[in-house]
Amino acid sequence: MSQASDARSAEVTRSQKSGARPAEDERQARLGLAAAGEPGDARLADLVTRHGAVELWRHLRRGPGQSALARRAQTVDLPALIDQTAALGQRFVVPGDDEWPDRLGDLVRCSGVDSGGAPLGLWLAGPGRLDRLVEQAVAMVGARASTAYGEHIATDLAAGLAERGHGVVSGGAYGIDGASHRAALAVGGATLAIMAGGLGQLYPAGHIRLLERIRDEQVLVSEHPPDRRPSRSRFLARNRLIAALGLATVVVEGSVRSGAANSARWALALGRPVLAVPGPVTSATSATPHRLIRDQEAVLVATVEDVLEAISPLDPARAVGPVQPSQWWDGLSEPERAVYEEIPGRGDITVDELAERSGETVVELIGRLSRLRERGLVQPTERGGWRLVRGGRAGTGLVAEEPKLGSSVEG
Questions:
Q1: Considering just the CA atoms, what is the radius of gyration of the chain in Å?
Q2: What average pLDDT does this structure show over 289-299?
Q3: How many domains does the chain have?
Q4: What three-state secondary structure class fits 249?
Q5: Do 2 and 41 fall within a single domain?
Q6: Of the four, 68, 75, 132, 271, which is 20 to 30 A from 287 by CA?
Q7: What is the pLDDT of residue 340?
Q8: Is 92 strand, coil or helix?
Q9: Which stretches of 237-377 are assigned E, i.e. beta strand?
Q10: Rounded CA gap, 169 and 167, in Å?
Q11: Considering Cα of 159, then 119, then 79, then 74, what sign does the dihedral take?
Q12: Confidence of residue 113 (pLDDT cuts 50, 70, 90)
């Protein structure tokens, strides 16, 4: 492969950014590579990024087959795979397609947990548009061997999110996954299942009816050719897609070494919020959410309102109120942080007192306090001072008057 391959890759990228549909040879090359490789193969993803899917596919097909990938590529019957995909009513979408979720691009820049790379393409089955279903989606993950408590909480959260227009992304498995999918469907909401095997052999068998309903009403998603069976490594690779497609990942139960813990690690690596539901301390399925909360890797949530509040900065159109100070901390300027830190945890403080402590002028402080108020971090008091907002709930009507800055300025 040569420098010309880099130019071809750059041309593909430009065409995708311009809104042009991918060329058919690009789609077929990605289809063949997806069939020859394994999801989450960071080396394969890197080769596609550096050389382009078309150049890489041609190289593997015409080479002597010295690598395992080349040998597998040379056994792929591309026309038969295309016909099989169409015969099963499935479609293969790739980056640049209208239906491709931009959020998956974050996987390119993500440091892998135990695999890596964005998907080469996705097999989809169902009438739903993937990009629209995941636009406001939240990932729900948890234990397969779930408790009645866990399924009850997952049902409440998923139904509440779906009723408020948030799609539910999960993996179609027993336990928390299944409870989440069913709850979203029960209220007429959006849900999609990411499969660890091909969409021609739905797994697990006990969820065939549930998965068929999702396929008939929404969409099923897979990185695998239709006849490929699930495996442990494919479940782990699948978890990165669940985490990438959600605005946030909610963990409802999970043992110490679980798929839920793996999904949470992917969400953290992607920079997505992780939300965890606490459980009984006597239950082994509480291990993962409790550890995430203890290590400050997850926000504790117990109700759908908690989830909505946590994701509201990521979903401004559906914001339910100002966010917690810690969620906006990185967005503050250094002077704003300094002013915020001078406001006492209890009671309030006047602008004059702030000016004395901070060394700033009253005019500067008024501007900084106004910006902190806009972020829901502080609010004025009836006596003309300022105080911290408890729980990030400024603007609730508890304080109706504007601060009496005039009297403070005058003397």
A1: 25
A2: 94
A3: 3
A4: strand
A5: yes
A6: 271
A7: 84
A8: strand
A9: 249-252, 274-277, 299-300
A10: 7
A11: negative
A12: low
**Percentage of residues in the chain having pLDDT higher than 70:** 83
CATH number, domain at 288? 3.40.50.450
Q: Are 170 and 140 in contact (CB under 8 A)?
A: yes
| Separation of alpha carbons 311 and 319, rounded Å | 8
> By three-state DSSP, how is residue 373 classified?
helix
* Helix-helix angle 259-270:232-245, to 10 degrees: 40
Helices (H), 148-231: 148-163, 176-186, 208-217
Nearest to 269 by CA among 98, 145, 49, 112: 112
Is 329 found in the same domain as 311? no
Same domain, residue pair 335 and 295: no
Rounded Cα gap, residues 128 and 139, in angstroms: 17
The predicted-structure confidence for 269-292, as pLDDT tens digits, reads as follows: 999 999 999 999 999 999 999 999
Q: Give the whole-angstrom CA distance, residue 132 versus residue 156.
A: 23
Report helix, strand or coil for 12.
Answer: helix
Boundaries of domain holding 344: 325-410
Which of these, 234, 171, 224, lies nearest to 199 by C-alpha position? Answer: 224
Specify the length of the chain in residues: 411
> CA 285, CA 276: separation in Å to the nearest integer?
12
Among 34, 53, 83, residue at a domain's last position = 83
Task: Using the structure block, give the residue that is written with the tokens 């591309």.
Answer: 78
Check whether residue 180 and residue 221 sit in a common domain. Answer: yes
Q: Indicate the pTM of the whole model.
A: 0.72
Question: Are 117 and 170 found together in one domain?
Answer: yes
Shared-domain flag, residues 236 and 365: no
Q: Same domain for 271 and 173? A: yes
C-alpha dist (Å) from residue 255 to 17, 143, 170, 237, 285: 42, 7, 17, 19, 5
Q: Is the peptide bond before 273 cis (omega within 30 degrees of 0)?
A: no
Domain boundary among the residues 24, 58, 83 is at 83
Domain CATH number, residue 394: 1.10.10.10
Burial of 377 per CB tally in 10 Å (0-12, 13-18, 19+): buried
140: helix, strand or coil: strand
- 102 with 131, same domain: the answer is yes
